[in-house]
Fold:
Amino acid sequence: MSRLPACEHLELRQEGWRLHVTLNRPYVRNAMSFKMVEEIMAVFDALHERHDIRAVILRGAGGNFCSGGDIKDMAAARQAEVGADGVDPLAHSNRLFGAMLTEVNRAPQAVIAIIEGAAMGGGFGLACVSDVAVAHVSAVFKLPETSLGVPPAQIAPFIVQRLGITQARRLAVTGGKIDAAEAHRLGLVHYVAGDAVELEQLVDTILAQIHRCAPAAIGVTKALMLRVGEEPIEELLNRGAHQFAAAIRGPEGVEGTVAFLQKRKPKWAHQGED
Structure:
């Protein structure tokens, strides 16, 4: 079993089958430094082998989710010169953000984003790669990159996947500032809470729903869905058929069907109950 890495800019708290990951740079509204990006990647890389963890709850410390990339880090990276091999170090550092979002997107666990305050740039991207997103009514979402003279290069593909090309283009050319209500209307977030109490109640309800689902089946289903549009549908359906057969013959499939016939909860719905 892979150990979770020690982190400087993330606060990790495992609570049974749930892992709380808090972006912890509140003094800059949890802006993502390169170090934080690397830490997020390391955590989610370790999670591929952590079958005891079934859900990851992402949130930000100090009342904000994430204000995007750390401008100071980017300004420092701009001072680095292009190497003799022609590789621009800025391109390499920017690509890390896309690699991080891909790592979160491919997590076999259920990923819940709890969005309070600002969700800008990379924070917007993190919301896009969550399985379930819950926003406080006062949350504000923004894509500030084009107003700063740069493209949201690593975030744009995930925005298109989440919202579709029409809405993604609109947000890109207007600076993309929207409130929680519009984020819900567009499908960026799934729930909007009116206050802090309702927010926590919604998260508890979502976690209870996840707890009733088989963990391995969740991982296989997510991976199958992410392949849509990336390979011919017939190949995808063939793979799905083999995965279904393996699952129904496997321990989760056997337990799930027997539990249904016996009118009881499957074993995974009891594991880690408080």
